[in-house]
Amino acid sequence: MIDTTLGSGAMFDAIARRYDLLNRVLSFGSDQRWRRRTVRALELRPGAEVLDVATGTADLAIACARAGARVTGVDPSAGMLAVGERKVADAGLGGAVTLVRGDAQALAFPEARFDAACMAFGIRNVPDRPRALGELARVVRPGGRIAILELGEPRGGLMSLLARVHIHVLVPLIGALLSSGREYRYLQASIAAFPPSEKFVEMVRAAGFADVAAEPLTFGVSTLFSARRP
Predict the structure, then answer these.
(1) Distances in Å between the alpha carbon of 89 and those of 74, 84, 85, 194, 210?
(2) How many whole angstroms separate alpha carbon 69 and alpha carbon 66?
């Protein structure tokens, strides 16, 4: 059983200042490339209104803004948002990105408020994933797209075996060196517990989305899920 309280805003407050470095190290520098692919999956038009859920330190929100979108980033961690605010200001995107505290399971926005929505490395930390997906379906306009980037445990093949070694051995080791071992044991456990792609695809469909697709990235270390609201 995973202690889901570790995935709360309080846990991420504790690692906020080291979060970006940990992402770079643990993904071997691939996380920014994965985020750019996530932005492309949204098929954004200039001026699109985008919701970035579990925005963390705002990397994905910044990437969307650089693609011409106006972005609202939501996260439960005040510490992560504080880091994100500094990064948004340093990027000169204060007029395009707004960051607020919020819960993926109860988004404080009206129906059909956004043209698109995205989420990177956050859905596995949400206790009630179907509810969070339902909230995305509620706040995205008909025809709008969602893109969810998430880590997972690869299954099958030699490279998948190497990726599993990375998750089970290197992730907790590197995490313990750069942060609290307890926090990154949680990370390892949460990755291993995330459902197989086909099951999560069905969950996205059940939330009311169409054209659901799953694209493995870097031998399946992460997967990009995309869909359209009918």
Answers:
(1) 17, 9, 6, 34, 36
(2) 7
**50-83: burial string, b at 16+ Cβ within 10 Å, e else:** bbbbbbbbbbbbbbbbebebbbbbbbbbebbbeb
Q: Nearest-CA neighbor of 116 among 229, 202, 31?
A: 229
Q: Domains (ranges, CATH) in the chain? A: 4-149+194-228 (3.40.50.150)
**Separation CA 150–CA 214 (nearest Å):** 11
Which pTM value belongs to this model?
Answer: 0.87
Q: At what angle do helices 31-41 and 19-26 cross, to 10 degrees?
A: 90
SS3 label, residue 56: coil
For 95, the token pair is: 């007029």
**Residue 218: pLDDT band with limits 50, 70, 90:** confident
The predicted-structure confidence for 101-115, as pLDDT tens digits, reads as follows 999 999 999 999 999
